[in-house]
C-alpha cells in the first residue's frame, strides 16, 4: 500500500515535471489532458482527472488535482478524491525530482487476488511505462500524508471482500526502490490498529526487507515482524521472524505473556515454525513450544500443536510455595472463564495440547492432554484426561457447543483411591488422616447447558456399595432450582454421603430454597450411625406442592414411620391432606438424624434431652387443608401416648400462609401424667427424678391473630410449684413480637423444685415459701418486669426490672429491689453453694471447711439497686438502712457503693466475691465513721470496757476453696482512730496507791502487789482525746502494733492480734506512770495487762513483775536517802563551827592591815612630790630637744628636694633614651616593674611635699615642709636617715595615745590625695587617687610608715 501510494503520487509529480520542461508556450486549456497523457505514459495505466486542476510554477512548482482515477474509469485501480504536490525547483536543475510535500485525500486502492493467489497490481502491465525506465533514486518524496484512505481486497478463491478504511498515514520514500516508511492508524473490521512500517532498498534478487509493528485496540498486545517481502509471477510472499508481547499497565494483575515464531506467508498458507509461548513474567515463566499451519482457500483450515513444559500455577497466580493457590477457588473459575472465552471459529482445524506437569495447590497434576477439533459450531473434545492428587484420574470426551446457548455433552469418569487426599488438595486444606474416605469411582454421561446439569446413566461405586440412577440440577430463570434424584442402591449411608459432600465443599448441607424430586429405594438406610432395615421414598417438593406418594422406614432404631398424602400451594393457600403414624420403642435414632441437620437449634436440643422420656411413643397425626376464595382452612391433630404421659394437640388456622400473621389461629396443647418430673423432662428440662411422685400437667392455649393480637394462657403444676399466666402477643409485619403477661408463682416450699434440678437452696428456719406476682411486657427478647411484689422465704420484697432474654446466653436484667431483710450469707450461697456456711467445722477454726458447692446463679446476670431495712452479715453484725448496687452472675457477686448504719455510725464499702470453678476470691474495702466504740467493745457485768467515737478504714483480699480457707487467706491493711473516749477498769492512780502502801510498810510480795494493784486498777478509768493505730492483715490475722494512750500522768501502749479463723484475741497493754517524784534510778513503775481468749470476752491477766522490781529499788533508795540526810545534818554543824572561827581570825588580820596601809600612804605622798619635780625637769629638756630637731628637719628637706630634682632630670633622660630604643620597650617595662616600689614611694613623697606648711601648736614641736616642684616623671629616691627619737620616743613606735605630742602637719592650700596603699606592700603608693579628706572629719589621727620607719600623718 505504501509503495502504491508513492508510485501514483510520484507519477503525477513526474507528469508535472514533463509539462514544465515541455514547450515554453503551453495551451493551458489542454492542461488536464496533458497530465492524463503524461500520467498514463509514466504509470502504464490509464489516468483520468475528473475534477479541477491547479498548477503553479513559481516560487516552486505546485499541482493540485481532484477526483483522480488510475485504471479504467468504471473499475479503477485507485481513486484519489484530492491530490496536492510541491517539488523543489533546484533539484530539477540537477536532474532529480525532490517532492517536499504531497497530500492524498481519501485515496482508495482496489486490489484483488485471482484463483492462484496472484495480486493483480503486480501483473505485467499492458502498456509500456516511463517509470520503469527512469533512475529509481532520482525521485525522492518527503512529507507524504494520506487522510481517510482505504484498501479493498477481493479474493477470487473464496469470494470474500475485505476492507480496511479510515487510514491516516505519514509516508516517506527515499526513491522508487526504497527505503520506505509509513506510520499511522487504520480501521479493519471495526477494530482500530496503529501501525509502523519500515523497509530497506530493493535488493538485486527482487526482495526487500520490511519491518512492521502493529497494535490492535481490542487486544492488549503488540505484534511485530521482521522479514523479506518479494513477489514472483504476481504471488506475494513474506517470511521472517514474528513476535508478540502483551501490554500491561504498571501495577496491573493481568497475566503477562509473549510469543516468538518464524513465519512464512504466501497466497496459499501461513506457516509458523519454531514457535514459543511464554506465560507470566520472565523470572517465573510458563513456556510452550510448537507450531501451526493455516491454509487459505475455498475451505480454510488450521492445525496447531503446543507442548508445555512444567506449569507452576502456584507461582503464576498464587503466592508461591508458601501460599499456594486453592484449586476450588482459582482453577474452576479460570477454567470456566477459559472455556466460555473459547472463540467460535468458522474454520475447521485441530489443536493438540500437552502439559506434562502442573504445580497447583502445593501438589502436582500430571499428564494433562487434550485434542480439540473446531467444527464451526463449537469444539469437539476427543479426549481430555489427567492425573490428580490422591491417586486420582479423570477423563472426558464429548462436544462443546458454542452456539446461542453453550453446552457440553459427553462421557466422563473420575476415580480416586484416596478421595480424602483429593478433597484436601481441592479445598487447600492441610492433610488430615483422621478424615479418611473410602475409594470412590463415578462414571456416566453428562449433559450441561442452559442452566441445567444432568448426570444420566450414573454409576457410583463407593467401597462395597453400588448405586445407579440419575441426578440432575436445573435452574430455570422463571422458577426455583430443581434437584432430581432417582437412584437404586444396596445401601444408602447418609453419613457417608454427608462426609463426601462436606469433604469436597467444606460446608455442611443445609436446607435451601430448592425444589426436589426424590425416588430412592435402598435395602438398608444408615443415618447418624443408626440403621433402618429398609427405606422407600417417592416424594417431591416442586412448584409449591409437597407430594408424598410413599415414605416408609422400617425399624429405624425401633421407630416405624409411615406417611403419605399431598398438599398443594404450600406457601399460599394449602389444600390437601397428609396422614402419618409413628410407633417407636425409642426416638434416639430420629433425634440423632434431626441433630445432624440442625445441630444448634434449641428445639432439637430440647428434643434430644426429652427423647428418652418420650418413648415408647404411639402417635397419630393428620394435617388437612381446604382452600376457598383465596384463604385456607387448616387443621392439625396430633394425639397419643409419649412415655407415661398423654399428649393432645389440636389446632386450626384460617388465612394465608404467606400472610400468616393476618390469619386466625387457635391451638390448645395438654401434656400431663402421674409423674411431674417426667413431664419436665419431656419438655426438655434436665430434671432429676425424686422418690416422691407427684402428678404434673402443663397447658397452653392460643387464640387470635398474630399481627392484631394473639391471646394466650399458660398454666403448670409441677413438683410443688404452680405458675399461672395470661397475656397477649402481637407480631408486627416488620418488627419483633410485642407481648405482655400477668404472672403469678406460688409454692409452699421451693426446695422440692430445686432438688428436681439438682439445686439445694439455702436452708431457712422454715420452708422456702414463695408467693410472687408481677406484670411482664416486652418486645422480642427485651422485657420489662413491673410491680414485682410478694414474699420469698422470710422476706417481703417489691421491685421493678428490665432486661433481655439473650439467645443462648444468660438472662440479663437491671432495676431496683426493696427488701425487708437481706441475709448476706444466704446471698453468698447463690455463688458459693448451698449451706456452705453451716458445713463441717475443724477443731482449729470456727468456720466451715466444707468444699464450695454448685453455683445457683447460672443463667442470670443481674444488676440491682437494692435497699433493705436490715442486712445481716452474722448474728452480731448487721447494717441498718442498708443500700447498694448488687451485681450477680454465675461467677460474681459484688456490692458497690454499699452504705448503712452500724454501731451508731456510717458504714460504706465495696465487696467482690468471685468464683473460679472450685475456688473463691473475696476482696473489698470499707470505711466506718463516728461509730460508738462502746457498742463494739466487750463488756464486764453488762458495761462496756471502752467508749469513744471510732473511725476505721480497711481493705482486704483473700482466696480459698472453703469458707475456712477463704478467711485464713485474707490479707490487707488499714487504719483506725478512737476519739474522746474512756478506758474503764484502768485506774492510773493505782500506781500512787500501791506505792504509798509499799512506802507505808506493805510487804513486797508479788501476790500481794498483784492483788493490791488489781483492786486499785478496777476502781478507775483513763480518759483520752485520741488513739490512732494501723492494722495489718496477713494469713487471716489482724495485727495492731504500737498503740499508745497518753494522759496527764500515765502512758498506755501495747499491741493486739486477732485470729479471724479462731475468732480469738491475743494482746498486751503496758501501763506506766510519768510522775517525776516517783522516779527511781534503774526502774520505773510499770505493769503489763495481758488479754487472751475469745474475741467477744477475752480473759485479763496482770504482769506486776516490773512494778515489784521498782518497789524493791524504791525501798533501797529511800533507806539510802535517810542515811544521807543524817550525814548532811552532822556536816552542817561542823561547817557552822568552822565559819565562826574563820570570822575571828579575819577581824584580827583586818586591824593589822589597816595599820600597814596608813604607813604606806604617808610614804607614797612623799614619793609623789619628788616625782612631780622630776617630770617638770624632763619637760624643759624635751622642749629644747624639739627645737634642735626642727632645725635638723629643715636641712633634711632641702637635701631631699635636691634629690628629687636630680631624679626628674634622670627620668627625662631615660624617656628620651626609651624613645630612641623603641625595640627595647619590653625590657624597659621589665625594669620599670622592678623599680615600681621605689617610684611609688617617690610619688607618695611628692604628694606629701605638695601640701602647705602647717602651723605649730603652742608648746609642741613641729616640722615645716617646703613645697617641692612637681615632678614630671617617676624616679627613685635615696634612702632616708634613721628614725629620730623625739622626747625619748621613736617615731616609728609612738603609741596611739602619745601621738598628739607631735602635733598636726601644717599644709598650705588644700590637702593632697596620697593614693591608696596596696595590701601587699605598705611602701607602695597606687596610681589611683583617694578621695580628699575633709578637714573637719579627720577624727583620730591616721599615719603611714615611710621608708626608714618614720611616720607621716595623713588626716
TrEMBL record:
Location of region: Disordered: 1148-1187, 1213-1279, 1325-1355
Biased composition (Basic and acidic residues): 1148-1184, 1213-1237, 1247-1258
Gene Ontology annotations for the cellular component aspect, listed alphabetically: plasma membrane
Keywords: Membrane, Transmembrane, Transmembrane helix
Origin: domain of life: Bacteria
InterPro entries, per the entry: AsmA, AsmA-related
GO biological process terms on file: regulation of protein targeting to membrane
All residue ranges annotated as the AsmA domain in the record: 10-203, 851-1041
Protein's UniProt keywords contain Membrane: yes
Residues annotated as transmembrane: 12-31
Name this protein carries in UniProt: AsmA family protein
Organism: Pseudovibrio denitrificans
Amino acid at each position: 500500500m505504501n509503495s502504491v501510494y508513492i508510485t501514483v503520487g510520484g507519477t503525477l509529480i513526474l507528469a508535472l515535471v514533463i509539462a514544465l520542461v515541455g514547450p515554453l508556450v503551453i495551451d493551458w486549456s489542454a492542461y488536464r489532458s496533458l497530465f492524463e497523457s503524461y500520467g498514463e505514459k509514466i504509470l502504464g495505466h490509464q489516468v483520468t482527472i475528473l475534477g479541477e486542476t491547479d498548477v503553479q510554477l513559481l516560487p516552486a512548482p505546485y499541482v493540485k488535482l481532484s477526483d483522480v482515477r488510475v485504471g479504467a474509469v468504471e473499475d479503477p485501480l485507485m481513486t484519489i478524491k484530492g491530490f496536492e504536490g510541491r517539488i523543489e525547483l533546484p533539484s530539477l536543475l540537477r536532474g532529480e525530482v525532490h517532492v517536499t510535500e504531497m497530500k492524498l485525500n481519501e485515496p482508495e486502492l482496489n486490489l484483488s487476488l485471482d484463483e492462484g493467489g496472484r495480486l493483480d497490481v503486480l501483473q505485467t502491465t499492458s502498456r509500456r511505462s516511463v517509470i520503469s525506465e527512469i533512475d529509481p533514486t532520482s525521485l525522492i518524496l518527503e512529507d507524504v500524508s494520506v487522510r481517510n484512505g482505504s484498501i479493498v481486497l477481493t479474493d477470487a478463491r473464496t469470494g470474500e471482500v475485505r476492507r480496511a478504511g479510515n487510514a491516516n498515514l505519514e509516508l516517506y520514500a527515499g526513491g522508487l526502490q526504497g527505503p520506505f516508511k509509513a506510520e499511522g492508524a487504520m480501521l479493519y473490521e471495526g477494530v482500530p490498529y496503529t501501525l509502523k512500517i519500515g523497509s530497506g532498498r530493493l535488493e538485486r534478487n527482487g526482495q526487500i526487507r520490511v519491518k512492521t509493528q502493529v497494535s490492535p485496540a481490542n487486544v492488549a498486545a503488540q505484534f511485530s515482524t521482521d522479514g523479506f517481502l518479494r513477489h514472483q509471477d504476481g504471488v506475494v510472499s513474506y517470511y521472517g521472524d514474528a513476535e508478540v508481547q502483551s501490554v500491561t499497565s504498571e501495577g496491573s494483575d493481568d497475566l503477562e505473556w509473549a510469543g516468538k515464531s518464524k513465519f512464512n506467508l504466501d497466497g496459499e498458507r501461513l506457516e509458523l515454525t519454531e514457535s514459543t509461548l511464554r506465560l507470566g513474567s520472565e523470572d517465573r515463566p510458563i513456556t510452550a513450544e510448537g507450531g501451526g499451519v493455516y491454509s487459505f482457500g475455498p475451505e480454510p483450515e488450521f492445525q496447531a500443536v503446543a507442548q508445555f513444559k512444567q506449569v507452576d500455577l502456584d507461582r503464576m497466580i498464587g503466592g508461591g510455595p508458601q501460599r499456594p493457590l486453592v484449586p476450588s477457588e482459582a482453577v474452576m473459575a479460570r477454567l470456566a472463564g477459559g472455556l466460555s472465552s473459547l472463540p467460535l471459529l468458522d474454520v475447521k482445524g485441530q489443536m493438540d495440547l500437552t502439559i506434562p506437569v502442573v504445580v497447583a495447590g502445593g501438589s502436582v497434576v500430571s499428564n494433562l492432554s487434550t485434542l480439540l477439533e473446531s467444527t464451526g459450531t463449537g469444539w469437539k473434545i476427543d479426549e481430555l484426561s489427567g492425573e490428580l492428587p490422591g491417586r486420582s484420574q479423570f477423563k472426558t470426551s464429548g462436544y462443546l457447543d458454542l452456539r446461542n446457548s453453550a453446552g457440553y455433552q459427553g462421557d466422563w469418569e473420575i476415580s480416586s483411591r484416596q478421595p480424602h487426599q483429593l478433597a484436601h488438595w481441592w479445598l487447600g486444606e492441610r492433610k488430615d488422616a483422621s478424615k479418611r474416605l473410602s475409594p470412590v469411582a463415578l462414571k456416566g454421561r453428562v449433559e450441561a447447558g442452559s442452566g441445567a446439569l444432568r448426570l444420566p446413566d450414573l454409576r457410583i461405586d463407593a467401597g462395597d456399595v453400588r448405586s445407579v440412577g440419575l441426578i440432575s440440577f436445573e435452574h430455570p430463570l422463571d422458577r426455583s432450582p430443581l434437584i432430581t434424584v432417582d437412584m437404586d442402591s444396596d445401601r444408602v449411608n447418609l453419613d457417608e454421603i454427608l462426609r463426601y459432600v462436606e469433604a469436597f465443599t467444606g460446608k455442611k448441607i443445609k436446607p435451601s430454597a430448592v425444589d426436589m424430586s426424590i425416588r430412592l429405594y435402598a435395602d438398608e438406610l444408615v443415618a447418624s450411625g443408626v440403621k433402618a432395615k429398609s427405606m422407600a421414598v417417592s416424594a417431591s417438593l416442586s412448584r409449591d406442592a409437597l407430594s408424598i406418594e410413599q415414605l416408609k422406614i422400617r425399624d429405624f432404631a425401633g421407630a416405624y414411620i409411615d406417611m403419605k398424602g399431598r398438599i398443594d400451594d404450600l406457601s399460599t393457600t394449602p389444600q390437601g391432606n397428609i396422614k402419618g403414624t409413628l410407633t417407636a420403642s425409642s426416638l434416639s435414632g430420629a433425634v440423632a438424624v434431626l441433630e445432624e441437620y440442625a445441630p444448634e437449634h434449641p428445639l432439637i436440643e430440647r428434643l434430644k434431652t426429652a427423647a428418652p422420656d418420650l418413648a415408647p411413643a404411639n402417635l397419630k397425626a393428620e394435617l388437612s387443608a381446604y382452600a376457598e376464595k383465596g384463604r385456607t382452612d387448616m387443621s392439625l391433630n396430633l394425639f397419643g401416648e409419649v412415655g407415661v404421659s398423654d399428649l393432645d394437640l389440636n389446632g386450626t388456622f384460617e388465612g394465608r400462609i404467606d400472610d400468616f400473621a393476618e390469619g386466625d389461629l387457635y391451638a390448645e396443647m395438654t401434656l400431663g401424667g402421674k409423674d411431674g418430673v417426667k413431664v419436665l423432662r419431656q419438655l426438655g428440662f434436665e430434671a432429676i427424678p425424686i422418690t416422691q411422685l407427684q402428678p404434673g400437667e402443663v397447658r397452653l392455649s392460643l387464640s387470635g391473630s398474630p399481627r392484631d393480637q394473639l391471646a394466650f394462657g399458660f398454666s403448670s403444676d409441677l413438683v410443688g410449684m404452680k405458675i399461672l399466666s395470661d397475656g397477649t402477643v402481637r407480631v408486627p409485619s416488620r418488627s419483633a413480637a410485642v407481648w405482655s403477661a400477668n404472672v403469678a408463682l406460688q409454692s409452699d416450699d421451693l426446695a422440692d423444685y430445686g432438688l428436681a434440678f439438682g439445686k439445694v437452696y439455702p436452708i431457712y428456719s422454715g420452708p422456702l415459701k414463695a408467693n410472687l406476682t408481677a406484670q411482664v411486657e416486652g418486645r422480642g427478647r427485651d422485657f420489662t418486669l413491673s410491680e414485682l411484689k410478694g414474699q420469698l422465704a422470710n422476706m417481703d420484697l417489691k421491685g421493678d426490672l428490665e432486661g433481655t432474654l439473650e439467645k443462648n446466653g444468660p438472662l440479663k436484667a437491671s432495676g431496683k429491689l426493696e427488701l425487708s431483710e437481706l441475709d448476706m450469707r444466704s446471698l453468698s450461697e447463690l455463688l458459693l453453694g448451698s449451706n456452705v456456711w453451716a458445713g463441717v467445722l475443724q477443731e482449729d477454726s470456727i468456720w466451715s471447711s466444707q468444699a464450695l458447692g454448685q453455683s445457683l446463679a447460672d443463667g442470670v446476670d443481674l444488676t440491682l439497686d437494692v435497699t433493705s431495712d436490715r442486712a445481716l452479715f452474722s448474728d452480731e453484725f448487721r447494717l441498718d438502712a442498708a443500700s447498694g448496687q448488687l451485681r450477680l452472675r454465675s461467677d460474681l457477686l459484688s456490692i458497690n457503693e454499699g452504705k448503712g448504719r452500724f454501731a451508731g455510725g456510717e458504714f460504706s464499702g465495696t465487696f467482690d466475691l468471685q468464683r473460679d470453678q472450685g475456688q473463691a476470691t473475696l476482696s473489698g474495702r470499707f470505711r466506718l465513721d463516728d461509730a460508738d466504740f462502746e457498742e463494739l467493745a466487750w463488756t464486764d457485768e453488762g458495761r462496756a470496757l471502752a467508749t469513744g467515737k471510732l473511725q476505721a478504714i480497711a481493705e482486704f483480699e483473700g482466696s480459698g476453696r472453703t469458707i475456712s480457707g477463704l478467711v485464713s487467706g485474707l490479707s490487707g491493711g488499714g487504719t483506725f482512730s478512737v476519739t474522746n473516749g474512756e478506758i474503764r477498769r484502768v485506774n492510773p492512780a493505782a500506781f500512787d496507791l500501791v506505792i504509798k502502801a509499799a512506802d507505808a510498810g506493805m510487804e513486797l510480795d508479788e501476790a500481794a502487789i498483784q492483788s493490791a494493784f488489781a483492786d486499785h486498777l478496777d476502781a478507775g478509768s483513763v480518759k483520752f482525746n485520741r488513739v490512732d493505730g494501723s492494722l495489718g492483715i496477713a494469713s487471716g490475722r489482724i495485727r495492731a502494733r504500737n498503740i499508745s494512750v497518753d494522759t496527764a500522768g500515765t502512758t498506755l501502749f501495747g499491741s493486739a492480734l486477732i485470729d479471724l479463723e479462731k475468732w480469738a484475741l491475743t494482746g498486751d497493754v503496758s501501763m506506766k506512770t510519768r510522775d517525776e517524784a516517783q522516779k527511781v534510778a534503774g526502774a520505773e513503775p510499770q505493769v503489763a495487762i495481758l488479754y487472751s481468749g475469745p474475741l467477744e470476752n477475752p480473759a485479763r491477766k496482770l504482769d506486776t513483775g516490773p512494778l515489784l522490781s521498782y518497789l524493791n529499788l524504791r525501798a533501797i533508795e529511800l533507806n539510802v536517802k535517810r542515811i544521807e540526810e543524817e550525814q548532811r545534818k552532822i556536816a552542817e554543824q561542823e561547817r557552822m563551827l568552822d565559819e565562826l572561827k574563820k570570822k575571828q581570825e579575819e577581824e584580827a588580820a583586818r586591824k593589822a592591815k589597816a595599820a600597814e596601809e596608813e604607813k604606806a600612804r604617808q610614804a607614797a605622798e612623799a614619793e609623789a612630790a619628788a616625782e612631780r619635780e622630776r617630770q617638770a625637769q624632763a619637760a624643759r629638756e624635751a622642749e629644747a630637744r624639739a627645737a634642735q630637731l626642727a632645725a635638723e628637719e629643715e636641712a633634711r628637706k632641702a637635701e631631699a628636694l635636691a634629690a628629687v630634682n636630680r631624679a626628674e632630670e634622670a627620668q627625662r633622660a631615660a624617656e628620651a633614651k626609651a624613645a630612641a630604643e623603641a625595640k627595647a620597650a619590653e625590657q624597659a617595662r621589665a625594669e620599670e616593674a622592678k623599680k615600681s616600689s621605689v617610684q611609688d614611694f617617690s610619688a607618695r613623697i611628692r604628694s606629701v611635699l605638695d601640701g602647705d606648711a602647717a602651723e605649730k601648736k603652742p608648746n609642741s614641736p613641729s616640722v615645716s615642709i617646703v613645697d617641692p616642684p612637681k615632678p614630671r616623671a617617676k624616679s627613685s629616691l635615696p634612702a632616708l636617715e634613721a628614725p629620730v627619737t623625739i622626747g625619748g620616743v621613736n617615731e616609728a613606735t609612738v603609741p596611739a595615745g602619745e601621738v598628739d605630742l607631735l602635733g598636726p602637719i601644717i599644709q598650705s592650700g588644700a590637702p593632697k590625695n596620697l593614693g591608696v596603699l596596696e595590701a601587699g606592700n605598705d611602701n607602695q603608693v597606687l596610681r589611683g587617687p583617694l578621695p580628699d579628706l575633709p578637714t573637719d572629719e579627720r577624727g583620730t589621727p591616721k599615719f603611714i610608715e615611710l621608708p626608714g620607719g618614720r611616720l607621716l600623718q595623713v588626716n
